[in-house]
Amino acid sequence: MIPGVEQRMKELTKEQCEKEQIEILEMKCDVDHVYLYVRVYPQTTISRIMGSIRDYTSKILRKEFVELSRMSALWTRPYLVSTESYISEETIQWFVEQQKKRG
User: Fold this and answer.
1) Confidence of residue 84 (pLDDT cuts 50, 70, 90)
2) Measuring CA to CA, how many Å separate 47 from each of 9, 44, 56, 88, 89?
3) Taking the complete model, does pTM exceed 0.90, yes or no?
C-alpha cells in the first residue's frame, strides 16, 4: 500500500459524504476493499452514493499520488450492499474473493 493513501481516501470520503448528507457510521479499509456503513435518506440511491464517492476520491487521489494515476482503475464496478444493520466479516471476505476471481 502507498503511504498516506488510506488516510487521504478516508478524508476525501468524509468530505464527499458531508456534501451529500450521508452519515458515515463506520469506515474501515483493507488492502483490497473499503467497508462503509452509512445512514442515508431513503430516496438516495445506492448507485448515486457509490458513484459520487468513487468519482470524487479517484479524481483527487490520482492527482495527489502519481503512482495511482498509472492504474487503470482505483475502484471496481461491483459493490456489496446490505440493508441489515450487521454484515459479517465472512460475507465481506467472500465478496472480495469473488471479485478477485472475476479478474
Assistant:
1) low
2) 19, 9, 14, 22, 22
3) no
